[in-house]
Design brief:
This protein is mainly alpha-helical and 199 residues long. It is built from 10 helices and 4 strands, in the order αββββααααααααα. It has one domain: Orthogonal Bundle (Transferase(Phosphotransferase), domain 1). The strands form 2 sheets. It has a two-stranded antiparallel sheet. The longest helix has 16 residues.
């Protein structure tokens, strides 16, 4: 999360918005060095002009910010995606989901996520605090990547390294990786949203 927030802060300082941040787009530089990540897949990234807003929905549904669904959004959507990624890393489940794409979109719009799951009982309260700042529904109140990077949980490496991952978290992460049917549904939804010339 520390490296991810640093990279996003740098991108946003240069007016670049990724628009499709998710665990699948964060890779290790190499297998031997788990301390160095790379962000990939800038295929739908956008350079935003000052105060510019976008209205075309882009990205992977489960990581979309509520304002993408509403149709007016800026770079803040990447910060929301970082919050979703942190949620997934801490408990092994997605914070917003439904029986189909439309139910998932409705769940995201409501912005209510479950902190009563067993893995959260073992979480550092600072990690949960940071997650709540990134999963703020109002993009104007949502923490920026730069502000999140300065959060005590990110800056205090001793504190950040003390994360208890239960077997439930690993099982959940494995299940997420194997969600082929859901991936197919999401890809279908995305292709319907992308203009024909871009498909």
């Amino acid at each position: 999360m520390r490296q991810l927030l640093s990279a996003i802060a740098y991108m946003h300082d240069n007016n670049v918005c990724h628009r499709d941040l998710k665990p699948e787009n964060i890779l290790l530089k190499n297998k031997e060095d788990i301390g160095m990540i790379k962000i990939i897949d800038f295929g739908i990234s956008k350079v935003f002009r000052e105060n510019e807003l976008e209205n075309q929905p882009r990205g992977t549904v489960m990581y979309m910010a509520p304002e993408i669904i509403s149709g007016n959004y800026g770079k803040e959507v990447d910060n929301w995606a970082c919050g979703v990624i942190l949620y997934v890393l801490l408990c092994g489940r997605l914070p917003f989901y439904g029986k189909d794409v439309y139910a998932t979109l409705k769940s995201i719009k409501h912005g209510v996520y479950n902190l009563e799951l067993e893995p959260f009982k073992h979480c550092n309260p600072h990690a949960l605090d940071l997650m709540s700042k990134l999963l703020e529904r109002d993009p104007k109140k949502r923490w920026t990547a730069k502000k999140a990077y300065s959060h005590p949980w990110i800056q205090n490496l001793n504190m950040a390294m003390k994360v208890n991952f239960t077997d439930e978290v690993f099982r959940g992460l494995k299940k997420l990786v194997n969600m082929k049917g859901l991936k197919r549904t999401i890809l279908m939804y995305l292709t319907l949203q992308i203009p024909e010339k871009d498909v």
